[in-house]
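Morning run. Coffee first, then this:
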Amino acid sequence: MSEGDILPGAPHPRTRARLFGHAAFEADLLGDWRAGRFPHALLIGGPELLVLRRAAEAGEDKVPTIIPAEMVRKVRNFFGATAAGGGWRVCIVDAVDDLNAFGANALLKTLEEPPPRALFLLVCHAPGRVLPTIRSRTRLLRLRPLSDGDVLAALDDLRGDMEDLQEASLPGAAAAAGGSVRRALVLARGEGLEVRSATLRLLEQLPNARPEEMHALGARLQGDRADGLDLFVEAVSDWVAGAVTQGGLERRRLVRLGEVWEKVRRAAGEADTFNLDRKALVFRIFTELAEAVRA
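And here it is:
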Protein backbone atom coordinates (compact mmCIF):
# COMPACT_ATOMS: atom_id res chain seq x y z
CA MET A 1 0.00 0.00 0.00
CA SER A 2 1.40 3.38 -0.98
CA GLU A 3 1.33 6.45 1.25
CA GLY A 4 -0.12 9.73 0.08
CA ASP A 5 1.71 12.25 2.26
CA ILE A 6 5.40 11.39 1.84
CA LEU A 7 7.51 14.47 1.13
CA PRO A 8 9.86 13.55 -1.76
CA GLY A 9 13.50 13.67 -0.75
CA ALA A 10 12.77 13.84 3.00
CA PRO A 11 13.06 10.95 5.48
CA HIS A 12 9.74 9.54 6.64
CA PRO A 13 8.91 10.69 10.19
CA ARG A 14 8.72 7.10 11.38
CA THR A 15 12.45 6.69 10.67
CA ARG A 16 13.39 9.45 13.14
CA ALA A 17 14.27 8.57 16.74
CA ARG A 18 14.09 12.09 18.23
CA LEU A 19 10.95 13.93 19.31
CA PHE A 20 10.91 17.71 18.97
CA GLY A 21 8.45 19.81 20.96
CA HIS A 22 5.51 18.60 23.10
CA ALA A 23 7.87 18.18 26.06
CA ALA A 24 5.06 18.55 28.61
CA PHE A 25 3.01 15.76 27.02
CA GLU A 26 6.09 13.57 26.78
CA ALA A 27 6.89 14.05 30.48
CA ASP A 28 3.26 13.43 31.45
CA LEU A 29 3.05 10.19 29.50
CA LEU A 30 6.41 8.98 30.83
CA GLY A 31 5.14 9.62 34.34
CA ASP A 32 2.01 7.57 33.66
CA TRP A 33 4.12 4.77 32.20
CA ARG A 34 6.40 4.61 35.22
CA ALA A 35 3.40 4.68 37.55
CA GLY A 36 1.75 1.79 35.72
CA ARG A 37 -1.31 3.77 34.63
CA PHE A 38 -0.58 4.26 30.94
CA PRO A 39 -3.85 4.70 28.97
CA HIS A 40 -4.80 2.12 26.37
CA ALA A 41 -5.88 4.78 23.83
CA LEU A 42 -4.67 8.28 23.05
CA LEU A 43 -6.68 10.63 20.87
CA ILE A 44 -4.10 12.87 19.22
CA GLY A 45 -5.71 16.67 17.50
CA GLY A 46 9.58 -0.90 17.23
CA PRO A 47 6.63 -2.57 18.56
CA GLU A 48 4.26 -4.55 16.42
CA LEU A 49 2.32 -1.97 14.46
CA LEU A 50 -0.92 -1.62 12.52
CA VAL A 51 -1.59 1.64 10.68
CA LEU A 52 -5.06 2.55 9.42
CA ARG A 53 -4.96 5.48 7.01
CA ARG A 54 -6.24 6.63 3.66
CA ALA A 55 -3.85 5.40 1.01
CA ALA A 56 -4.01 4.13 -2.55
CA GLU A 57 -4.01 0.37 -2.94
CA ALA A 58 -1.17 -1.34 -4.79
CA GLY A 59 -1.36 -0.51 -8.49
CA GLU A 60 -3.81 2.34 -7.91
CA ASP A 61 -3.16 6.09 -8.04
CA LYS A 62 -6.39 7.33 -6.47
CA VAL A 63 -6.40 7.84 -2.69
CA PRO A 64 -9.81 6.95 -1.17
CA THR A 65 -11.79 9.66 0.64
CA ILE A 66 -12.35 7.51 3.74
CA ILE A 67 -10.69 4.67 5.66
CA PRO A 68 -12.76 1.64 4.60
CA ALA A 69 -14.59 -0.30 7.33
CA GLU A 70 -13.00 -3.48 5.99
CA MET A 71 -9.59 -2.10 6.93
CA VAL A 72 -10.77 -1.22 10.43
CA ARG A 73 -12.03 -4.74 10.97
CA LYS A 74 -8.43 -5.94 10.64
CA VAL A 75 -7.88 -4.46 14.08
CA ARG A 76 -9.68 -7.34 15.82
CA ASN A 77 -7.57 -9.95 14.03
CA PHE A 78 -4.43 -7.94 14.75
CA PHE A 79 -5.10 -7.77 18.47
CA GLY A 80 -6.47 -11.30 18.55
CA ALA A 81 -3.05 -12.72 17.62
CA THR A 82 -0.36 -13.24 20.24
CA ALA A 83 2.30 -10.56 20.23
CA ALA A 84 5.84 -11.77 19.59
CA GLY A 85 7.74 -11.97 22.86
CA GLY A 86 4.70 -10.77 24.79
CA GLY A 87 5.36 -7.18 23.73
CA TRP A 88 3.04 -4.28 23.04
CA ARG A 89 0.86 -4.05 19.97
CA VAL A 90 0.16 -0.60 18.60
CA CYS A 91 -2.59 0.57 16.22
CA ILE A 92 -2.36 4.02 14.63
CA VAL A 93 -5.49 5.49 13.02
CA ASP A 94 -4.55 8.46 10.82
CA ALA A 95 -7.03 10.05 11.02
CA VAL A 96 -10.21 9.26 12.94
CA ASP A 97 -11.87 12.02 10.91
CA ASP A 98 -11.55 9.76 7.83
CA LEU A 99 -13.67 6.95 9.33
CA ASN A 100 -17.26 6.62 8.19
CA ALA A 101 -19.97 5.46 10.62
CA PHE A 102 -19.29 1.79 9.91
CA GLY A 103 -15.55 2.17 10.43
CA ALA A 104 -16.00 4.16 13.65
CA ASN A 105 -18.32 1.52 15.08
CA ALA A 106 -15.90 -1.26 14.12
CA LEU A 107 -13.09 0.57 15.94
CA LEU A 108 -15.31 1.17 18.97
CA LYS A 109 -15.84 -2.55 19.47
CA THR A 110 -12.13 -3.06 20.16
CA LEU A 111 -11.79 0.14 22.21
CA GLU A 112 -14.59 -1.03 24.52
CA GLU A 113 -12.65 -4.16 25.52
CA PRO A 114 -8.97 -3.50 24.78
CA PRO A 115 -6.69 -6.54 25.05
CA PRO A 116 -3.70 -6.44 27.40
CA ARG A 117 -0.62 -4.48 26.28
CA ALA A 118 -2.50 -2.79 23.46
CA LEU A 119 -2.12 0.88 22.54
CA PHE A 120 -4.27 2.92 20.15
CA LEU A 121 -2.94 6.22 18.78
CA LEU A 122 -5.85 8.02 17.16
CA VAL A 123 -4.87 11.09 15.16
CA CYS A 124 -7.72 13.58 14.95
CA HIS A 125 -8.13 17.00 13.31
CA ALA A 126 -11.47 17.86 14.97
CA PRO A 127 -11.88 16.03 18.31
CA GLY A 128 -15.30 17.59 18.86
CA ARG A 129 -16.67 15.69 15.87
CA VAL A 130 -15.48 12.28 17.07
CA LEU A 131 -18.14 9.91 18.37
CA PRO A 132 -18.69 10.58 22.11
CA THR A 133 -18.36 6.84 22.75
CA ILE A 134 -14.86 6.89 21.23
CA ARG A 135 -13.84 10.09 23.05
CA SER A 136 -14.96 8.62 26.38
CA ARG A 137 -12.62 5.65 25.90
CA THR A 138 -9.54 7.67 25.04
CA ARG A 139 -7.31 10.25 26.63
CA LEU A 140 -7.24 13.48 24.65
CA LEU A 141 -3.90 15.15 23.90
CA ARG A 142 -4.37 18.61 22.37
CA LEU A 143 -1.06 19.16 20.62
CA ARG A 144 -0.04 22.70 19.69
CA PRO A 145 2.12 23.90 16.80
CA LEU A 146 5.83 23.60 17.52
CA SER A 147 7.79 26.66 18.53
CA ASP A 148 10.17 28.19 15.98
CA GLY A 149 13.05 26.83 18.04
CA ASP A 150 11.71 23.27 17.97
CA VAL A 151 11.09 23.46 14.21
CA LEU A 152 14.61 24.78 13.68
CA ALA A 153 16.05 21.97 15.82
CA ALA A 154 14.15 19.39 13.74
CA LEU A 155 15.43 20.94 10.49
CA ASP A 156 18.99 20.91 11.80
CA ASP A 157 18.58 17.25 12.72
CA LEU A 158 17.42 16.46 9.16
CA ARG A 159 20.16 18.45 7.45
CA GLY A 160 22.59 15.55 7.51
CA ASP A 161 20.16 13.43 5.47
CA MET A 162 19.04 16.13 3.05
CA GLU A 163 21.74 17.73 0.93
CA ASP A 164 19.37 20.37 -0.48
CA LEU A 165 18.77 21.93 2.95
CA GLN A 166 20.92 25.06 3.15
CA GLU A 167 21.80 26.15 6.69
CA ALA A 168 21.28 29.84 5.89
CA SER A 169 17.62 29.29 4.90
CA LEU A 170 16.61 27.26 7.96
CA PRO A 171 15.84 30.09 10.46
CA GLY A 172 13.61 31.89 7.97
CA ALA A 173 11.83 28.67 7.03
CA ALA A 174 11.26 27.76 10.68
CA ALA A 175 9.85 31.21 11.46
CA ALA A 176 7.43 31.09 8.51
CA ALA A 177 6.30 27.48 8.96
CA GLY A 178 3.56 28.03 11.53
CA GLY A 179 4.90 25.26 13.75
CA SER A 180 4.99 22.61 11.00
CA VAL A 181 8.23 20.79 10.21
CA ARG A 182 6.82 19.62 6.88
CA ARG A 183 5.96 23.15 5.80
CA ALA A 184 9.41 24.33 6.95
CA LEU A 185 11.05 21.68 4.77
CA VAL A 186 9.08 22.81 1.74
CA LEU A 187 9.96 26.45 2.43
CA ALA A 188 13.65 25.75 2.94
CA ARG A 189 14.09 23.91 -0.35
CA GLY A 190 14.22 25.46 -3.78
CA GLU A 191 12.45 28.82 -4.05
CA GLY A 192 9.95 28.24 -1.27
CA LEU A 193 10.86 31.28 0.83
CA GLU A 194 11.01 33.52 -2.24
CA VAL A 195 7.51 32.44 -3.34
CA ARG A 196 6.08 33.09 0.12
CA SER A 197 7.80 36.48 0.44
CA ALA A 198 6.61 37.61 -3.00
CA THR A 199 3.04 36.53 -2.17
CA LEU A 200 3.05 38.34 1.17
CA ARG A 201 4.35 41.54 -0.45
CA LEU A 202 1.46 41.49 -2.92
CA LEU A 203 -1.05 40.83 -0.15
CA GLU A 204 0.26 43.87 1.74
CA GLN A 205 -0.39 45.99 -1.37
CA LEU A 206 -4.08 45.10 -1.61
CA PRO A 207 -6.33 46.40 -3.04
CA ASN A 208 -3.72 47.88 -5.39
CA ALA A 209 -1.29 45.02 -5.99
CA ARG A 210 1.39 45.95 -8.52
CA PRO A 211 0.83 44.20 -11.90
CA GLU A 212 4.57 43.82 -12.54
CA GLU A 213 5.01 41.95 -9.25
CA MET A 214 2.02 39.73 -10.00
CA HIS A 215 3.54 38.98 -13.39
CA ALA A 216 6.89 38.10 -11.77
CA LEU A 217 5.25 35.82 -9.21
CA GLY A 218 3.21 34.08 -11.91
CA ALA A 219 6.38 33.51 -13.95
CA ARG A 220 8.10 32.03 -10.89
CA LEU A 221 5.19 29.66 -10.26
CA GLN A 222 5.05 28.75 -13.95
CA GLY A 223 8.62 27.52 -13.77
CA ASP A 224 8.16 25.72 -10.44
CA ARG A 225 6.28 22.46 -10.81
CA ALA A 226 7.16 21.29 -7.30
CA ASP A 227 5.68 22.99 -4.23
CA GLY A 228 5.47 26.64 -5.37
CA LEU A 229 1.74 26.57 -6.10
CA ASP A 230 0.93 25.00 -2.72
CA LEU A 231 3.01 27.63 -0.91
CA PHE A 232 1.26 30.41 -2.82
CA VAL A 233 -2.17 29.05 -1.92
CA GLU A 234 -1.16 28.54 1.72
CA ALA A 235 0.05 32.13 2.02
CA VAL A 236 -3.17 33.50 0.51
CA SER A 237 -5.32 31.20 2.66
CA ASP A 238 -3.44 32.21 5.82
CA TRP A 239 -3.97 35.88 4.93
CA VAL A 240 -7.71 35.37 4.37
CA ALA A 241 -8.02 33.42 7.64
CA GLY A 242 -6.20 36.17 9.52
CA ALA A 243 -8.39 38.88 8.01
CA VAL A 244 -11.55 36.99 8.97
CA THR A 245 -10.53 36.10 12.54
CA GLN A 246 -8.96 39.38 13.62
CA GLY A 247 -12.38 41.01 13.89
CA GLY A 248 -13.58 44.46 12.95
CA LEU A 249 -14.74 43.60 9.42
CA GLU A 250 -18.27 44.22 8.25
CA ARG A 251 -20.47 41.21 7.57
CA ARG A 252 -20.57 41.71 3.79
CA ARG A 253 -16.76 41.79 3.65
CA LEU A 254 -16.50 38.64 5.75
CA VAL A 255 -18.91 36.87 3.41
CA ARG A 256 -16.95 38.07 0.38
CA LEU A 257 -13.63 36.89 1.82
CA GLY A 258 -15.17 33.48 2.54
CA GLU A 259 -16.28 33.24 -1.07
CA VAL A 260 -12.82 34.24 -2.27
CA TRP A 261 -11.20 31.57 -0.09
CA GLU A 262 -13.37 28.91 -1.73
CA LYS A 263 -12.48 30.24 -5.18
CA VAL A 264 -8.77 30.26 -4.37
CA ARG A 265 -8.78 26.59 -3.35
CA ARG A 266 -10.88 25.56 -6.33
CA ALA A 267 -8.88 27.58 -8.88
CA ALA A 268 -5.56 26.29 -7.54
CA GLY A 269 -6.81 22.70 -7.70
CA GLU A 270 -7.89 23.17 -11.31
CA ALA A 271 -4.56 24.79 -12.21
CA ASP A 272 -2.67 21.86 -10.72
CA THR A 273 -4.90 19.16 -12.21
CA PHE A 274 -5.13 20.61 -15.70
CA ASN A 275 -1.70 22.27 -15.79
CA LEU A 276 -3.23 25.71 -16.34
CA ASP A 277 -1.29 28.95 -16.70
CA ARG A 278 0.04 30.13 -13.33
CA LYS A 279 0.26 33.79 -14.35
CA ALA A 280 -3.44 33.89 -15.16
CA LEU A 281 -4.15 32.21 -11.82
CA VAL A 282 -2.20 34.85 -9.87
CA PHE A 283 -3.97 37.72 -11.62
CA ARG A 284 -7.37 36.06 -11.16
CA ILE A 285 -6.87 35.49 -7.43
CA PHE A 286 -5.57 38.98 -6.71
CA THR A 287 -8.43 40.51 -8.71
CA GLU A 288 -10.89 38.60 -6.50
CA LEU A 289 -9.03 39.64 -3.35
CA ALA A 290 -8.97 43.30 -4.37
CA GLU A 291 -12.74 43.27 -4.97
CA ALA A 292 -13.30 41.64 -1.57
CA VAL A 293 -11.13 44.22 0.21
CA ARG A 294 -13.02 47.06 -1.44
CA ALA A 295 -16.45 45.54 -0.66
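Residues 251-274 form the longest helix (24 residues). Good start to the day.
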